[in-house]
Each structure stands twice: as structure tokens, then as C-alpha cells.
């Protein structure tokens, strides 16, 4: 199994930079509002909001024949925000108040009003001061805000700051040059690596690829290219081997088809040229012709079935079948065949009976091919044993073993390939070379598995594992 997904190097860098930028922006915005923000009734606002509110409050004030008057909307805003108001005339005496706490005085000197402009948070309020001027009079007004707001003015050296301006412009220009230079260098570096990757892909297609060292940020891509090259070479090797075996198989099957066709043609000519043959001779010739026609038809059917199984177009009708009885009847049919009188066939079952879902016709074909293969490719007196059991994993275990001549490791590795014919088929040329390939395809179609274990001079064992719950 593969490990967790790995991002493309370019995407990984982009995501990393984007994530860092996002974190920096979030932290900056958070710190800004943490330092310069206050929570007022309508939401989060900057700490400069009380000063702006105080400046704008004068729009709700008016001169009523020499007396100050506060519009209703202004008083409503004070109540909504939980603020208080105190209006002072030119002599410093209070002329109007609204929601003012009792501990604040009713008169102020000029110096006290000036100090209130820079006063800090006291007694649960921060006071902001402004003035309202009409054509004839001027009033000062104080608004108390229940927020701890700092009032600080920054002083700086104007001459030095003026000198910093061109330096700042030069710094920005230098930074832009550095960024452009970095982008250019990074572009060349990236182009070089992309060129190596492009050439690697081209070399793989031309089969001239040389493995790249799996180092640096592109190590995963180089690893993928190296892996692809190995898989392509393996695929080429398999294809060459398959093509070679296919050609050999075509040559063999062509030869095998000629073998039954020759007696068919010969005996048909004898029947045609000698119409006066006796009935016994005609039946003998006809029997030989029929036998070879059946053999030819079997080879054609094998070829058709294997390609139908490969294409998934074969008719497949699984149903519950009593397995022990099914295999007993199959073995009995083979035992009754005179061609296998010289062989010992034994049937063993470690279970009484068991219902298994499979297609009876296809499964019979698979098991029959395995048993016939054990009989036809071994000398007389060979013992063939068919055994049934159930594994701890709830699988049906069917074993077909013999004590015959066995097979080499090379033969075992090629045994289930479609075009493979064993090395010991010269004395038994009747087969199509498809029997075991068909058996494996049928077992796989049923969701099962088939394996072979063999040793030269000691025999062969085929093992079928079939799921009990297959439907």
C-alpha cells in the first residue's frame, strides 16, 4: 500500500508560502484589532471611534436664543451607547448634562478642560472634549465613554524623517531588484530541473533512460521516473516473452490442428474412392474421422472460451451446488473412461456435505481440466488424489495432487499463461495448451484462487481456494 498522498513540490512550496502569508495576515489583523479595537454596542470598532463620535456630536447641538439645545436623536445615541454628556459655557459653568455621574464637577477652569483632552481612563470613563460654536456663543462639551482608551501623541525628528524618505525609496528599489534577481535565478534553476525531467521522460520512451539521483526537492519526481523506467522495462520484457510464447503457441496449435485433419482427410478420401467398402470398414473409418473431428472441435472451443473469459463475455450462472456429491460424480465419470484404466484415482473428503455457490458447467470444466492434466502428463500407475476440506477462513479447499514426474520452477511460473505448453507434451500432443489457463480464469471468475506446488520426480499439487459466501 502507498503511504499518504504527497504533494507536487511546486504545489507544496506554493501552499507553504500561502499558508505563511495567511497566518501573518491573520496575526497582523488580530494584533491590530487587539491593540486598536474596542467593543461598542454595534460591534468591533477602532479605538479612534470615541474621538470621531465626539467631533460629530456637534451636528445634534443648536443655539436656541442663547441657550444650548440637544436634539432628540443625539440624546438617543448617548443612551444607546451608554455615554454621558456635559455642556460647559464660556465661563466654565455647566449649562446642560445627560446621564452624567454624580462625582464629576459642575464647573471647570480652562486648564482643567485642556488637561481633560489628554486625560487617561479614570473612574470607569475616558473623557473626550470638543466645542460647539454658533454665531454668538461657544460651548465646550464633554462626553464620557466607558472604555479604557489610551491617548498618546508621537513626537519625531522631522528633519531625520525627511532624510529617511529617499533611503526608504532606495530600500524598496533594492528589495524589488533582489526579488527580481531571485525570480530569475529560481527560473533558471527550475528550467534546468524541468529540462532533466523532460529529457528523462523522452529517454524512457526511447528506452535510453539513465536513472537520476533521488535528491533535493524533486526527489519524488525522480523516484517516479526511475520507477516508471523499471516498470516499462519489465513490461517490455513481459511483452517480448508473451509474444515469443504466443508465436510458439500459434505454431504448435497450427501443427496440432493439422494432426487430426490429416486422418480426417485421408479416411474421407478412402471412403470416397472406395464406395464398395464393407459396412464394418466404413464404421471403422467413420469412427476415426469422428474422433479427430471431436478433438479439433475441442481445441476450437478451448480457444473460444479462454478469450470469452478474458473479455468477461462468458455466460455465468452461479447457484448453490452440493460440492461433495458434485466432485464425486465428476471423478466417477473420469474413472469410467477406458483411457485412464491404468491410473489410480482416489477421492477424499473431510466434510460430509457443503453447499457452495458456483456455475456447475464452468466449475466442472475447471476441475476436470486439472484432473485430466494430472492424468495425461504422467505415466501409467500414477496416483491422483482429490481432497476436499474447509479452512479456518471459511474457504473451500480443493486439492488435486499426484505422485508423477513433477515440474521445474520455470514450468510452474509459466503454467497458467494462456499460450504456454509444458515441456512434456511431445508424447501427449492432444492438448490445446489452454486447459490450465482456462481453469485459472474460471476459478478467478468465482472469486477464488488457484496455486501449484511441484517438484521434479515427486509429483504436483494444485490447490483451489473458493469463498463459501461467493454469490
Summarize the structure.
This protein has helices at 9-36, 49-56, 72-81, 110-116, 158-206, 219-273, 279-311, 323-335, 360-376, 409-414, 435-445, and strands at residues 37-40, 43-46, 61-64, 67-70, 84-88, 94-98, 126-133, 138-145, 319-322, 344-349, 355-358, 383-390, 395-402, 449-455, 459-467. It is an alpha+beta fold. A five-stranded mixed sheet has the order 10-12-13-15-14, with helices on one face.
Polypeptide structure, described:
There is one protein chain. The longest helix is centred in the middle third of the chain and has 55 residues. The N terminus is likely disordered. A hairpin with a 4-residue loop joins β7 and β8. The protein has eleven helices and 15 strands. It is 50% helix and 19% strand. α5 runs parallel beside α6 and α8 crosses α9. The strands form five sheets. A five-stranded mixed sheet has the order 10-12-13-15-14, with helices on one face. It has a four-stranded antiparallel sheet with strand order 6-5-8-7, covered by helices on one side. The chain has 471 residues and is an alpha+beta fold. The radius of gyration is 49 Å and the shape is elongated.
